Amino acid sequence: MATIKTRPEGTRRRAPARAPRAGWSWIATTLTGIGLLILLTVHMVANHFVVASVGGLRSYRQILEYIANPAIFTIEAIFLLFVTVHAMLGLRGVLLDLDPSPRVQRWIDAGLVALGLLTLAYGYFLIGTLASRA
Amino acid sequence: MNDVPGADRRAERGPVLRKGVGIPASGWFDPRGRALGGFAFSLNRVTGLGLVFYLYLHLGVLSLLLGGERSWSDFLRLATSWAFLSLDILLIFGILYHGLNGIRVALVGSGLVADRQRALWWSLGVIGTIALIAATLHIYGSK
Amino acid sequence: MSSMGTRRFRVYRYKRGDPGWRFDLFVVPVTSRTTVLEALRWTQLHLDRTLALRHSCLHASCGTCGVQVDGREVLACVTPVDELGATITVEPVANIPVLTDLVVDMREFVARFPEEIATVRASEQPAGAVPPDGIGAYGRFEDCIECGLCLSACPVSATSDAYVGPAALAAAQRLLEEPRGVDPDRVLDWADDPSGAWRCHAAFECTAACPSNVRPAERIMALRGALAGRGDRA
């Protein structure tokens, strides 16, 4: 026979409940990762590698001028979004390897969503405040 | 059979060997028997966690800007020291490794180039090494 | 005549009902051609009749002698002692409960597989090849010998028993490649699970450990490609 049954009829593998669209996390991590390749390169080069200062570190005035530029502000805002989502999904993957129960997994998911939103909120507050000071 | 001495103990599930030191996720870091792919995966994890830590450190450092020019200038004095610049190079290693290995994971994990994972690691490694050397020269050269 | 010497074998021991496991040390005479399995069989015959191990074909086609040697997953029957150190540690494969000594409960390994797996596949004989009299058509067995080495090597399986593991996912991908009457959508539904194809972290340890050219990691990646390609399905 080309195929065989691996277990008697009516028996099931001991498995958690089915989760449709289970690949969303992997796909989202990959897509944000691809976005970060571009955004992080732009961030690093524009921030640190075109400035004639020690370690590429801008002065206070230089930073305010940099972040006040609308195009830069937009790019940095999108960068923060992508990096936060990618980081939270990555942390989720790491924490899932501690084999939590479904209940603990729900707390982990809620906690990471909350942490991600707080990170975004603070980050946008920061760049918004600095841009307004320029 | 149930009245044979020790039958209950013998019916118990036996021990399960796990790589690592008894904590579930520590198996990633057990180097025994590991091939290149496992090492790449472990280092991806380490750099990923390092970068998450850096994300919050970076937000914290940028918060000094809220304190005005004086507060930022004080930080710059520390941040332009040799020790700090060396930590920046470590950061760039982490970014390069995680990013370039991420390209490998995306290409391999989507099934596009699954049978070339070792070649991808080495070739992206060469690119990363060149980029790291260039960044190091640039950073140390600016001092 | 091969030169004789001895090696020390540090062998994992556990009997059902024991409070815990231990390592026993055996000094075994070896030659340049001795395999780990031969050394273990010599130990069983001459030093300790209670040492339990599995083996069958003696040539890497049955998969029953899978063990960890110095932390690396191998088939004992084809692992030369000559390539190893002076003290050789032999343990059962990881991530599957131990029944006794070097024997693990393969029921827990098989239970992870999808409900139906393929055993016979298309042969690599040329299309026009004529089989001998009495043979209907060429075919051959699937590559997977169900040795469990991939599951033992997998770093994700080390963290969770819920993950189906490389062998099961590779078997599922083979059903997509060559359905043999199995519904591919059912196979994809089975694999589309957080503890299925999406749990793999592409460490490729399974492919490195596989003695039979199954290349489970590559198959898991192909399975993922198929899942991503079929779009959002509830």
Question: Key terms for this structure?
Answer:
heterotrimer, A: 134 residues, mainly alpha, 3 helical TM bundles of succinate and fumarate reductases, 4 helices, C: 234 residues, alpha+beta, Ubiquitin-like (UB roll), Fumarate Reductase Iron-sulfur Protein, Chain B, domain 2, 2 domains, 7 helices, 19% strand
Q: Quickly give the structural class of chain B.
A: mainly alpha
Mean pLDDT of chain A: 85
The total tally of domains of chain A equals: 1
Distance between the termini of chain A: 76 Å
What is the global morphology of chain B?
extended
Q: What's the number of helices of chain A?
A: 4
What is the beta-strand fraction of chain A? under 5%
Q: Element order, helices and strands of chain A?
A: EHHHH
Largest interface: B-C, 37 and 48 residues
Largest sheet of chain B: none
**Element-by-element helix/strand order of chain B:** HHHHH
Under CATH, the topology of chain A can be stated as 3 helical TM bundles of succinate and fumarate reductases
Indicate the radius of gyration of chain A in whole angstroms. 22 Å
Task: Give me the secondary-structure topology.
The complex is a heterotrimer of chains A (134), B (143) and C (234).
Chain A: E1 3-5, H1 24-49, H2 60-68, H3 70-96, H4 102-133
Chain B: H1 7-11, H2 36-62, H3 69-79, H4 82-109, H5 117-141
Chain C: E1 5-13, E2 22-30, H1 36-46, E3 66-69, E4 72-75, E5 87-91, E6 98-100, E7 103-104, H2 106-110, E8 116-118, E9 120-122, E10 139-141, H3 149-153, H4 166-177, H5 184-191, H6 205-209, H7 216-229
Parallel strand pairs in C: 1-5
Antiparallel strand pairs in C: 1-2, 3-4, 3-5, 6-7, 9-10
Helix pairs in contact in C: 4-5, 4-7
Describe the overall structure:
The complex is a heterotrimer of chains A (134), B (143) and C (234). Chain A has four helices and one strand. Chain A has 134 residues and is an all-alpha fold. Chain A has a single domain, classed as 3 helical TM bundles of succinate and fumarate reductases. In chain A, helix 1 crosses helix 3, helix 2 crosses helix 4 and helix 3 runs antiparallel to helix 4. In chain B, 67% of the residues lie in helices and 0% in strands. Chain B contains five helices and no strands. Chain B is extended and about 80 Å long. The mean pLDDT of chain B is 86. With 234 residues, chain C is of the alpha+beta class. Chain C has two domains: 100 residues, Ubiquitin-like (UB roll), CATH 3.10.20.30; 123 residues, Fumarate Reductase Iron-sulfur Protein, Chain B, domain 2. Chain C is built from seven helices and ten strands. In chain C, strands 2-1-5-3-4 form a five-stranded mixed beta sheet. In chain C, strands 6-7 form a two-stranded antiparallel ribbon. In chain C, a hairpin with an 8-residue loop joins strand 1 and strand 2. The longest helix of chain C has 14 residues. Chain C is globular and about 55 Å long. Chains in contact: A-B, A-C, B-C. At the B-C interface, helix 1, helix 2 and helix 4 of B face strand 6, helix 6 and helix 7 of C. Strand 1 of chain A pairs antiparallel with strand 8 of chain C, so a sheet runs across the interface.
